[in-house]
Amino acid sequence: MNGLRHAWYGALQQVARVLFILVFDIRVYHRRRLPRRGGVLVVANHQSFLDPVLAAVGMPRPYHPMARESLFRLAPFRWLIRSLYAFPVRRGRVDLGAVREALARLQAGAVVLMFPEGTRTRDGSIGTLHGGPARIAARAGVPLVPMVIDGAFEAWPRTALLPRPHTIRVACGRPVSAEDAAAGEPDEVMAALRRQMLGLQAELRRSAAGAV
What we know:
The protein has 212 residues and is α/β, with parallel strands linked by helices.
């Protein structure tokens, strides 16, 4: 069953990759920064509904996205996203069930994806990142990898009904070890991660403008 599920994930990932290249000219940078083995907690900025797919489409390992509970209410869509390793989280409060699920998957060697801004951006900027991912990474003993998605806000802002073509860039940042995550205050660890993400966002925008 796991082999079939992995094949299903890989097939949809390839379809999404071709589609996103054609529609969004998507390019992925620094993918080698994602560890090839073991549990990893990826934290990404949140620009649009496309983000869970954009974060995973160019990566060599399956992602397990933590997604808001409301997405699991419609049975056909719930089946689809669960088949692609997503699991639900209740927003607005600490969801201990979702935390335990994330820990279990990380300790089993999965790549878990979180959006620590908590909601989609209203202006394309990277907002404050809550400290939860730092606590989870420290407890699971796995590295934190920042990821930046840029251009998805212009492709599908929260005010638009449907997406439109726009160049999108995605990049992995440098991992933060579990030891470093455990050594600092969670909010401070995430603030440092945000600074790295802001630098990465600026790098992507220079690349898109042809400045590098």
